[in-house]
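To: structure subgroup
Subject: Chain for Friday's discussion

All,

I'm putting the inputs and outputs inline so they're searchable in the archive.
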Amino acid sequence: MNLFMTRKLEVSFNSPQCGWMSIGFDDGRNEFHTTTAHAPHANALPELLRILTQLLDSNSNQHEYILHWNRDPEEFDFRFLRSDGGGLLLEVYQYPGEEREIATRDLVFSHLGDIKEVCQAFAETFDRLYEDRETDEFEFNWRQPFPFKEFEEFKKRLD
């Protein structure tokens, strides 16, 4: 019996517009939506895909990953904490500015689930971004190329 099947995570990354992207997380109990910027954390999307790929690697000894992202002036840390039993804790912290002082952060979302299921939720939204990239003029609107290499590596690891 899987102890982490209590809540299904839904992840949404909407089509970028003018260097901004609306993102959201919802698991039926917790919900968080915000807008993120393409800069100054220009590698946020490829780094997120690298983190998800590493989380799926059962041979990896690393248990904690932190992704930095922002909304300007607010900053976000996406913390991924993997357990030895196949569980994954996803936490999103919001900071009022770029200083990232622990005393000023707020936990705005958390989800505990199965690593594969959480990664599948991210895969679904990245699949949509990939499928709509030309129609939505992804590179023009996000002001960065779609992270093809990282997306392919993530999909291979997920399968």
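Points worth raising on Friday:
The longest strand covers residues 87-95.
The radius of gyration is 15 Å.

D.
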